[in-house]
């Protein structure tokens, strides 16, 4: 209980600090969303409308910075992240909610799949170190060193243009609308296969190499030698004794990769014209849409924090020594 209370207090403070920085950072930049919006509309906005927009964006000059900060927290707890002027003054929550499922669905599944495959393959290679299976390590590492945009372009050229097996861009066919039907789900799977496959291929090498090296280290530990001397089944020694301890460092990396699912896909979404959060963040930055940028940064930060909390919990469950050290 002491361990979990300390970690909860730490992450609560971190969340407060991140949200506070997210509030002050846009206000430290030159200009404001209203000025950018007026410039975009070539000044065709009256002073009264400009004042109303500043009030809407929480930039009311009649309020002090502390009052704006308290209003920001009040709106945050009510689920109001402001309005995006680059999306026709649509609520930021609606804009993010429309793009978030595409990124989480595609990159989330690809990240989990690459972690499971890489950890499993790395554990087997480490268990049979010195065998012919070791050639998988340099091969997978080679694909990890290839720039992602280049790998994506090659995949499009080969499997879309040359062979015509998969679509080259977008999340579903042109002229289609999102709906719950087998035909639409089939389009989503077909359009998402190439970007998901390139993500798995690009990240697989790191998981394999990390798990393989940890397995080699763990296999020299006394508890593994004792388990083998007792005559325990090979599968049990591999899974319960060696792989369970070897994968602990992998969990921290996996938590970070889960946290960056939301914001770390800009290149992939640009190459495949995929309508996710990464492309939305790029568009918001280009348009200087501060409310949308602020909302996206907040979602990304909270996602990373939640992922790290889950990693700490899993780490404490798998390794009781962590709880004993913290308490």
Automatic annotation (TrEMBL):
The keyword Transmembrane helix applies. It comes from the Bacteria. InterPro entries: MetI-like (IPR000515), MetI-like_sf (IPR035906). It is found in: Cell membrane; Membrane. It holds the Pfam family BPD_transp_1. Keywords: Membrane, Transmembrane, Transmembrane helix, Transport. The chain crosses the membrane at residues 7-25, 102-127, 148-168, 188-209, 254-275, 295-318. One of its GO terms (cellular component) is plasma membrane. GO terms for biological process: transmembrane transport. It is a multi-pass membrane protein. Belongs to the binding-protein-dependent transport system permease family. This is Peptide/nickel transport system permease protein. It comes from Plantibacter flavus. The lineage of its organism: Bacteria, Bacillati, Actinomycetota, Actinomycetes, Micrococcales.
């Amino acid at each position: 209980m002491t361990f979990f209370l300390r970690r909860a207090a730490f992450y609560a403070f971190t969340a407060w600090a991140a949200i506070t920085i997210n509030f002050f950072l846009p206000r430290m930049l030159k200009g404001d969303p209203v000025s950018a919006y007026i410039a975009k509309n070539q000044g065709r906005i009256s002073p009264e409308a400009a004042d109303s927009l500043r009030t809407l964006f929480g930039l009311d000059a009649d309020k002090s910075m502390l009052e704006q900060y308290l209003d920001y927290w009040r709106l945050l707890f009510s689920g109001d992240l402001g309005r995006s002027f680059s999306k026709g003054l649509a609520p930021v929550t609606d804009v993010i909610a429309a793009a978030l499922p595409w990124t989480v669905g595609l990159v989330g599944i690809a990240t989990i799949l690459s972690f499971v495959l890489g950890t499993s393959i790395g554990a087997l290679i480490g268990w049979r170190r010195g065998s012919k299976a070791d050639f998988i390590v340099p091969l997978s590492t080679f694909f990890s060193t290839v720039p992602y945009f280049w790998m994506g372009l090659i995949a499009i050229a080969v499997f879309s243009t040359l062979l015509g097996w998969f679509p080259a861009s977008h999340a579903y066919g042109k002229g289609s609308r999102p709906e719950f039907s087998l035909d639409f789900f089939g389009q989503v799977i077909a359009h998402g296969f190439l970007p998901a496959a390139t993500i798995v291929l690009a990240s697989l090498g790191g998981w394999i190499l990390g798990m393989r090296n940890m397995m080699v280290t763990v296999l020299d530990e006394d508890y593994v030698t004792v388990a083998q001397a007792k005559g325990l089944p090979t599968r049990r020694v591999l899974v319960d004794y060696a792989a369970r301890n070897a994968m602990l460092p992998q969990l921290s990396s996996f938590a970070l990769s889960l946290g960056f699912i939301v914001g770390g896909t800009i290149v992939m979404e640009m190459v495949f014209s995929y309508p996710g959060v990464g492309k939305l963040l790029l568009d918001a930055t280009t348009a200087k849409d501060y409310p949308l940028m602020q909302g996206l940064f907040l979602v990304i930060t909270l996602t990373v924090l939640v992922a790290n909390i889950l990693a700490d919990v899993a780490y404490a469950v798998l390794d009781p020594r962590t709880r004993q050290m913290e308490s």
